[in-house]
Write a structure and sequence with these properties.
This protein is α+β, with helices and mostly antiparallel strands. The chain is built from two helices and five strands.
Length: 161
């Protein structure tokens, strides 16, 4: 009896297809963008407006994190902490190395960001989800990005903005 080692080509191909389908469904809404090159349709005005809104929203969230840091001397340990009212100050933040540090409650002047619907983080304008990625480990502590690997109309990925 012969023992075979590894996978056959068809088994490997099936595995790759299944992984690709799973990866495609993990990030909802991101598959609708991203065609580049000569076959890519020109961006429409609505997409360009949503991209401008995303850049503005990213800047607002980043500014709120900066105000939090300026007031408390620490980064938020969780991005949602920028929306907490002054009556509910966080007890712990993060230093630039990602280590927990105590926050003096009287230093917290929040909320540093409010949304039109009355609270919580805003939805990103491209797909309408709260797809924010917040850095809590050095060297990315305090960095804010959107979690979407779709390609923008300028050829960059939204996640790199």
């Amino acid at each position: 009896m012969t023992h075979r080692h590894g996978f056959t080509r068809i088994e490997a191909l099936i595995f790759i297809v299944v992984v690709a389908i799973l990866a495609w469904t993990v990030v909802p809404g991101c598959g609708s963008q991203g065609v580049v090159g000569p076959e890519a349709p020109p961006p429409d005005a609505e997409l360009l407006q949503r991209e401008a809104d995303l850049r503005a929203t990213l800047q607002e969230v980043r500014d709120a994190v900066g105000l939090f840091l300026s007031d408390t001397g620490a980064y938020p340990s969780d991005l949602s902490e920028i929306t907490k009212p002054a009556s509910e100050p966080p007890e712990v933040g993060l230093n630039a190395d990602g280590c927990a540090v105590r926050i003096n409650a009287s230093d917290y002047k929040g909320p540093y960001m409010t949304t039109a619907c009355g609270g919580g983080l805003p939805c990103e304008p491209i797909h309408g989800y709260q797809n924010w990625v917040y850095g809590t480990c050095a060297p990315n502590v305090g960095e804010v990005h959107v979690q979407c690997m779709a390609m923008a109309s300028d050829g960059t990925y939204y996640s790199t903005w």
